[in-house]
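Project outcomes to date are best conveyed with an example. Our students and postdoctoral researchers have been running inverse folding experiments weekly, and each run begins with a structure described purely in tokens. The record below, which covers 391 residues, was selected by the lab manager from last quarter's runs and is presented without edits.
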């Protein structure tokens, strides 16, 4: 608000304006005030504000003290008595100013209808603000409850993972112990074929035990950060060979041929070797399970220095429909992706897709009904450790 006012300035106000002295003298009234309060336009210092209102002397002093204490408008409620009329209660605002170098209190008087409309608008805005605050508090409470439930679910999940993993370790250790015992051939020499089977069982059990230990590790409260999981390089040639050995018994039963790349001089990967094995074992396992009996599974590695690396697992099975591939891309894991009626929940490809993302890669699945399936693990260049003879 302006510190100084003039009579012309008062007349410029559309609202009723009064200029009141320190003892309540009415120094000025603009046209709107004169009309509203039945006053003579201009100043009448001999008339005090008390003569126009129902204020007592003490109430007038308190009101003026309140107005002269600030240059910002303060809300007031004054009952005026226009000449020849009845007292009417009007809303007002008052603040300190100057008129002709005299300290005054400017009092702005609102017409009843104007005051009512402004007050109604203010009431509406306050009500909207209150409703917004209530909605925010409700949302915050629901969010807090959801976070609490999420913490409970995470705790239950970790407990279940730890319990299941612990329960799996006992029979796996028994299997490994038994194969170690059979390796010593205490009851006679094993023929070459049985010795090979013992090695396959031992290798498969050892790989499963590593996966179980990883689950236990992730479920533990003091599990290390992600940076620890990629500190060592994964040997792609070793991963492919060991996964082939795990899947070989299944392939042998179904008379399948597993064809690995002829040149196994492959680059190393800046990824967790156990997770790479998990992906490859799932891809080979799915192919061995659903490929046509007597068919073959081809594994190819395509890579050139500076480009992404592709590990493709191709089978000649029944293929996957476009709808089921779309479900896999959306993360669907409830039903088997393949159309075969053999057992299995179809989790392999969906789990492999998620694991591929965890190590920084992608899983691309291409298939047509009756034309087999090609599952490709795609790893970006920054995850590939170049070899000296890479082309």
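After processing, the design step wrote out the following sequence:
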């Amino acid at each position: 608000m302006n510190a100084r006012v003039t009579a012309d300035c008062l007349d410029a106000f559309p609202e009723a304006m009064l200029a009141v002295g320190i003892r309540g003298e009415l120094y000025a009234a603009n046209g709107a005030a004169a009309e509203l309060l039945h006053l003579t336009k201009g100043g009448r210092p001999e008339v005090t504000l008390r003569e126009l209102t129902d204020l007592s002397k003490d109430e007038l002093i308190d009101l003026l003290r309140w107005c002269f204490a600030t240059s910002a408008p303060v809300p007031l409620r004054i009952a005026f008595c226009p000449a020849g009329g009845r007292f009417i209660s009007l809303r007002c605002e008052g603040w300190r100013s100057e008129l002709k170098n005299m300290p005054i209190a400017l009092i702005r008087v609102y017409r009843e209808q104007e005051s009512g409309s402004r007050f109604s608008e203010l009431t509406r805005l306050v009500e909207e603000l209150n409703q917004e605050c209530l909605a925010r508090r409700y949302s915050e409470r629901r969010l807090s409850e959801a976070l609490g439930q999420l913490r409970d679910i995470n705790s239950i999940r970790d407990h279940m993972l730890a319990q299941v993993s612990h329960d799996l370790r006992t029979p796996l250790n028994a299997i490994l112990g038994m194969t170690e015992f059979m390796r010593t051939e205490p009851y006679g020499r094993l023929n070459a074929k049985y010795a090979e089977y013992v090695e396959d069982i031992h290798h498969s059990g050892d790989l499963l035990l590593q996966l179980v230990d990883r689950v236990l590790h992730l479920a533990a409260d003091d599990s290390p950060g992600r940076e620890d999981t990629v500190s060592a390089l994964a040997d792609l040639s070793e991963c492919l060979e060991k996964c082939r050995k795990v899947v070989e018994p299944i392939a042998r039963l179904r008379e399948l041929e597993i064809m690995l790349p002829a040149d196994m001089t492959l680059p190393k990967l800046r990824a967790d070797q156990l997770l790479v094995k998990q992906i490859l074992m799932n891809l080979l396992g799915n192919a061995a399970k659903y490929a046509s009996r007597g068919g073959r599974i081809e594994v190819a590695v395509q890579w050139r220095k500076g480009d992404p690396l592709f590990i493709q697992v191709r089978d000649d099975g029944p293929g996957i429909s476009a709808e089921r591939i779309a479900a896999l891309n959306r993360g669907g894991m409830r039903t088997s992706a393949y159309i075969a009626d053999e057992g299995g929940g179809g989790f392999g490809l969906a789990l492999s897709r998620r694991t591929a993302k965890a190590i920084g890669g992608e899983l691309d699945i291409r298939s047509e009904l009756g034309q087999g399936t090609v599952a490709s693990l795609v790893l970006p260049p920054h995850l590939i450790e170049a070899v000296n003879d890479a082309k």
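The chain has ten helices and 15 strands. Residues 112-183 form the longest helix (72 residues). The training component of this project remains on track.
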